[in-house]
Design brief:
By secondary structure, this protein is of the alpha/beta class. 38% of the residues lie in helices and 13% in strands. An 8-stranded mixed sheet has the order 3-10-9-8-7-4-5-6, with helices on both faces. Strands 11-12-14-13 form a 4-stranded antiparallel sheet, with helices on one face. It has a two-stranded antiparallel ribbon with strand order 1-2.
């Protein structure tokens, strides 16, 4: 068995033949500075003297001298039979502090000259993914119930034997086996057949939205956007230079008639017809038909975000809007973030035939291809029936947790909030009572070690009652009542 060459690569070590400084001093000084500046952190194992000597073109005796000198100075420790490490007794040092450009900068820092889109992006929030995973985090699936062993087997199938063909760039539209499995799934479970060639795989649903906006709209074009609506998506469209047109949402979904009256020249409409986030309502059939007719008459496009469609607890999942589109005006977007796990970063578009060529080219320019092995593992997972089995188990689990959430929540929040939980999705709403403000309640909930989102953060223009968005899917049923009592105490203190 070949012995592994342990330790980090040290690209900063450079020997200068033009200087009079001895080579052992050059290496010694560079290692010392790397430790002092925090580039080599405490506890880091260094490569062996033999490896360093080979990589630097020095004798091993010279390198041993360097390491012994640094050990004598207190920078290194030697562990018998284990190697040489950066001393654990040194104070922890960090490298240069990074400040995002939208945070306060020191007065001597000159702001970077950015493009128009860069300036727009700098002024919107992009903290998605930084939220701590705590009880009642919205949109959080039960990750502890994910079938890791099965997923690993599917991954092993597509990587077994060192398949080098899967290690290169893939098809810019996505791997054909995955597109075929998605087409089969949509036909069977969403009553929406399509050709696999109409599907383009993207690195998540968010990338699909960006691709659609870039392909179909210019900066300053208008886009209908449901109000309230998902914050990161509205910020994405803003950063791309689109003009957001807030459209109110009521019990029948987006108010299409008002949108047609106020913004008749919009280029795009972004809509969540199966389950609106965060209100949980569905777009009624008359409004779906009106929206489709508007798009046909105005040469506009509809971006359908099929949000949480897999998790419906009463009856079958609702048909997609694309399935009733007779004029090819709908761009359908799906992803596996809620059905499997957010970190998988695989989404997809189902496109009208006339858009496929342009979207394929743009996808290739933007992200070249989504990791091939992940796509093929997912295709295996779907094709072997594991995806359908997982969805079936999760629907049953979430239905149980939803029932406990509603019963215990109504009791715990009595007099504080009115609980509203739609028949689909992973979240519920707690409409606050007694003139309570959702942002204040949100801070109190965070201080109590829980998580939620204030509805006010989702509003674009229309004033609305204050509410907290609560995720129930990631909370075990046996802990629900206790955690809801803690939530109620936090809301009462706000």
């Amino acid at each position: 068995m070949v012995k592994q060459r342990k330790g980090p690569i040290l690209p900063f070590l450079r020997l200068d033949d033009a200087t009079a400084l001895p080579k052992f001093r050059q290496v010694q000084d560079q290692l010392r500075l790397a430790i002092l500046h925090g580039h080599l952190r405490t506890g880091t194992r260094l490569p062996s003297s033999r490896i360093l000597a080979t990589e630097l073109g020095l004798s091993r005796q010279t390198v041993v001298r360097v390491l012994e000198n640094l050990r004598a100075e207190g920078y290194l420790d030697t562990r018998q039979g284990d190697g040489t490490y950066v001393s654990a007794t040194l104070p922890h040092r960090q490298g240069k502090v990074f400040r995002p450009t939208n945070e306060a900068q020191p007065p001597d820092v000159v702001p970077a000259r950015l493009s128009r889109i860069g300036n727009l992006a700098r002024n919107v929030s992009a903290n998605i993914g930084r939220v701590e995973r705590k009880p009642f985090l919205p949109n959080a699936p039960a990750l502890d119930r994910f079938p890791f062993a099965v997923w690993r087997k599917c991954w092993n199938v597509v990587t077994r034997g060192g398949k080098t063909a899967n290690m290169g760039y893939g098809d810019v539209a996505g791997e054909l086996p995955l597109r075929q499995r998605i087409a089969e799934y949509l036909a069977l479970h969403r009553r929406d057949p399509c050709d696999p060639e109409q599907i383009i795989i993207t690195p998540g649903g968010h990338a699909a939205f960006a691709l659609s906006a870039l392909a179909l709209a210019d900066p300053d074009d208008e886009i209908w956007f449901e109000d309230p609506g998902p914050v990161t998506t509205s910020n994405l469209f803003r950063s791309l230079g689109l003009r957001l047109c807030p459209v109110d949402v009521d019990s029948e979904g987006m108010d299409v008639a008002t949108a047609m009256h106020r913004y008749p020249a919009a280029r795009l409409a972004f809509v969540m017809p199966s389950r609106h986030h965060p209100l949980g309502v569905t777009l009624s059939l008359p409004r779906r038909l009106a929206l489709l007719e508007w798009a046909r008459e105005n040469d506009a496009w509809i971006i359908e975000d099929d949000y949480d469609s897999e998790f419906r607890y009463s009856g079958a999942p609702l048909p997609s809007m694309r399935s009733i589109d007779g004029h090819d005006r709908v761009i359908y977007v799906g992803s596996f973030s809620k059905a499997l796990y957010p970190g998988i970063r695989i989404g997809y578009l189902v496109l009208p035939p006339q858009l496929v060529g342009a979207f394929r080219s743009l996808a290739g320019l933007m992200h070249r291809s989504v990791p091939v092995e992940a796509q093929l593992a997912l295709a295996e997972f779907i094709g072997d029936g594991h995806f359908a089995s997982h969805l079936r188990r999760m629907r049953a689990l979430y239905a149980e947790r939803r029932a406990v959430f509603i019963e215990a929540g109504q009791k715990a929040l009595s007099g504080l909030a009115q609980l509203d939980c739609s028949e689909s999705g992973l979240n519920g709403l707690a409409w606050l009572e007694g003139h309570r403000k959702d942002r204040l309640a949100h801070r109190a909930v965070l201080a109590a070690g829980l998580q939620c989102y204030p509805l006010s953060d989702y509003a674009l223009a229309a004033p609305r009652r204050d509410a907290l968005i609560l995720g129930f899917a990631g909370v075990p049923a046996e802990r629900m009542e206790m955690l809801l009592r803690r939530l109620a105490e936090a809301v009462a203190s706000a």
